[in-house]
Each structure stands twice: as C-alpha cells, then as structure tokens.
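User: For my dataset I need records formatted as: sequence, then structure tokens, nothing else. Please produce one.
Assistant:
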Amino acid sequence: MKRLVFDLIAEVMMSTLVEEDNLSTKALGRWPVFYYGMGHMLNDITAACWFTYLLLFLTEIGLSPRNAATVMLSGQVADGFATVFAGELIDRFGHFKIWHGAGSLLVAVSFSSVFGGCLPCKIFASNSSTFETVSYSVFAAIFNVGWAATQVSHMSMVSCITLNSTSRVALASCRNAFTMIANLSLYAVAYTVFSVINGKTYVDVQNQYRWIAYLSICIGCCFVGIFLLSTKEPRLKDCMHGEIRARISWFYWFKRVLYYQVALNYVLTRLVVNVSQAYLAFYVINDLQMEQSAKALVPAIIYICSFVVSILLQEIAWTGQRLKAYYTAGCILWIFCGGVILLLERNISDLMYIASVFIGVANALMMVTGVSMQNFLIGDDLNGCAFVCGSLSFLDKISCGIALYVLQSYQNTSPQLHGTLFSLSVTRFGLGLVPASCALVGVIITCTMDLQNSSKSLMEPLLA
C-alpha cells in the first residue's frame, strides 16, 4: 500500500515537472510580453531626458562644458558600479520585482533633484562653480543607483520568465518598443513645456526642466505600476527541472569567449545610441543651423521609426544566425548614416530628416538584437543571469560616461564657424564618427560569434 502511494506521488511530481518544462519553453502570449515591456518606462523616459537635455541644461544655467561632463560622468560611474552590485545581490537573493520597485521609487524621488536646481547651493548660500558641480554630481549619482537596480532586475527577468529563445527576443523587442514610446513621450512633454514657458531667464530655464522632470516621472510611474501589478515574479530561476541550482561563479562567464563578444557588442550598441542621442540636438541647431523645431522633430522621426521596426521584429521566429544578420544590417545602416552626418552641409540640411529615418531603423535593429544576444549567452544558466546583465551594463555606463566626458571636454560653449557651410566640430564627430566607428567594430565582432540555440528553439511566430 505504501509503495502504491509513493508511486502515485512520484507520478504526480513527474507530470508536474513535465508540465512546468513545457510551460517554460512554450511561446508567451501577447499580454505577458506587453506588460513586461511597460516595466522600464520610468527608466527609459528619465534616461531620454538625461542624455538629451542634461548637458544642454547644465550649460544653459552656467556650468562649463567640462563641469557638465563631470556631472554626467559621476552619474555614469555610480550607475556602472551599482549594476554590478545589484546583479550580484539579485543572483544571490532573487526577488526581481522588489528590486525593480525599490529602484523605481529611488529614481522617482531623486530625478527631479537633478533638474530642480542646486538645492545645496541655496542652503549654504554658495556661488562656487565647484560646489555647484559637486552638488549636481551627488544627485546624479543617487539617481543612477536607483536606475541601475531597476534596469538589472528588469533585464535579467527575461531569461527567467521563459526558456523559449523566440519569446525572449519578443520580450526584448517589446521593451525596445516602449523605449521608443518613452522617448516620444519625453519630446511631446518637452515641446509643450518649451512652448508654454519662455526660457529667457535663469529661473525660467530651471522651471522648464523642472516641469519636464515632474511630468516625465508621472508618466513613467503609471506604467511601472501596471507592470508591478500585472507581471508575476519569475520562478524558473528558483527551481527548474526539479533541481535547486547553485549560484554560478563569475569565473564561469569569464572563461567563455562568447561572454566577451556579447559584452563588446552590447557596449558598442549603447555607445552608438547614447552618444548619438546626446549630440543630436547640438548638431541640428549649432552645426546645421536648422529651425528650433528640428530639435524635437528629428529625434521624433528617429524614435517613431525605431518603434515601428521594434513592433515588426516581434513577428519573426528568431535563431542565432538571424540575430547576427539583423545586427549586422543595423550596423551597416549606421555606418552609412555616420558618413552622411560627417559630410552633410548646411545648405542641404533637410537631408537630415531622411537620415533620421535610417538612424531610427538602425537603432532598433541593433538594440533588439544586441540585447537578445545576452539571452543566447545565458541560455539555461539562470542563476547567473543578473550578473551577466549587471556586468555588461557596468561596461556600458563607464564607457559612455568616459566617451561623453572626453568629447565634451573639447566642446565650446558657443557654436563656431557660422559663416561656413561645413565645419568639423566636436558635435559632428560625436554624432557621426563615434557611432559609425562603433558600428564597424560591431560588424567585425558579430562575424566571429557562434550563437547556438541553448534551449528548445521553436520556429513559430514571436507572439502566440
């Protein structure tokens, strides 16, 4: 009798494990993917404001380009180290949603302080530029610590939500689509604020960016709330195939050649997107001397095109070879766009609108496939997924911070060579040469990669 009971229990347990295995490799439905994509909206909209307006805001209120770059670098360094620690702690203790919620709360509270004026300067009645730079740097660091916790928890969730390689790309693609929505939302908010508040005085400029920060936080928090309420805590990491898996050592990843290849591609992709975003507004206004509306219209075209492409990528059944092919295509497009940006003259500046279409397509192709390569690297090794995402993000933040600091150190506070049709400025190099060079290196690295499907590959549409 006891033997019969044990056999029944064993049979039930085996059937449960088989069912869990089938669910873990089954393509996700549209709603889980959709809710997941919402989870990074607060990070995305604040990051868009960070890279698009931070340097512009700080120089407009009187900081030198080098001091403004110092503020950004301090935030990037804090973000980089925080991603490593967050990744290690998430791998040890799990609880993705708790980390996500705590990080989002810190982002919401601290972001307004970055664009809200120098509060310590008012408290201590100091007019020192050094003290002002240090104050902004502290707020920037606090904001980026929260940003890092949210980013690592959200990115590493992908590998623990499903083992289906196609659905993992779906999650990354949907997240990228919401990144485009966040960027477009920011530019809509900024356009409205700039139209309502005339930034002729120091106080008006601060009010402009303060309201942009407040409205961005409100929009992002709404989406994060929906994500936290609608997305279940991933369980694949805790127990898979009936076995509790030990935490994977860092050295396991360091011994894999694919780790370094994926890391380099991810860093190069982030350099392309972030550096180009930081200098886009400077380029269309100072170098091409286009209308002020172009400062919002050109980025809007880029993000609309990226959004459309991100949606279309969700309908493809993905393999490692397709990831490599689409990533290479995005890099080649950016090389072409970089050449156009370097050589474009002011009397034909309208061509920038056409180039922005190709930039948007290239950004989407590189971001979706570049992030998805991480999931091919992780495969079934779920107890190291947060470290992979955190370490790659660390390299991304440090490299972007250093690149922007170096470029901004050679930047002038006022545009030069207004009388000429063409000038090789730091802005032109930052928007054209740096992304194109990174894209070229990305093509070379991608050709050497061996992306094998580490889990069951289901050749079916991305969304069930």
